[in-house]
Request: fold
Amino acid sequence: MSDLRDLYQEVILDHYKKPRNFGELETCDCKADGHNPLCGDKVTVYLLLEDGRVRDAHFKGEGCAISTASASLMTDAIKGKTKDEVDRLFNVFHDLVTGKPLSDEQTESLGKLAVFSGVQEFPLRVKCASLAWHTVQAALANEEAPVSTE
Ligand code: ZN
Reply:
């Protein structure tokens, strides 16, 4: 188990140091800003949509390792998904980081996002891990108002 934990930490650090899909999208259909005042994390999510699915997702922002790695892995995970599929994936992800039991099928649906399982031991970090997800939901809902975890 501790090997797995090391591996998970390595993946999170890698995505923190070299975030994927980082920077504004030149053309985007919707975007939203998110802020987690508890930690000071800030993120802006940019989405390009096609036929009701996320064709491309990028983000920009500054935050702790958990929030940055979460945004990086999330922007990969939501590509090709509909709004409903993104909502469903976030529900499973939220259960993971808050320590709720998951079925094998749910765990499988998370893919690489499973690296955030350690967050359940740090309740204050749940908001860091969830920030990008709340923000992408706001973008998909085309909300102009910035979202806050508070
Ligand atoms: Zn944070």
In short: The chain has a mean pLDDT of 93. The radius of gyration is 14 Å. Residues 36, 39, 41, 63-64, 66-67, 128 surround zinc ion (CB under 6 Å). The CA atoms of residues 71 and 132 lie 5 Å apart.
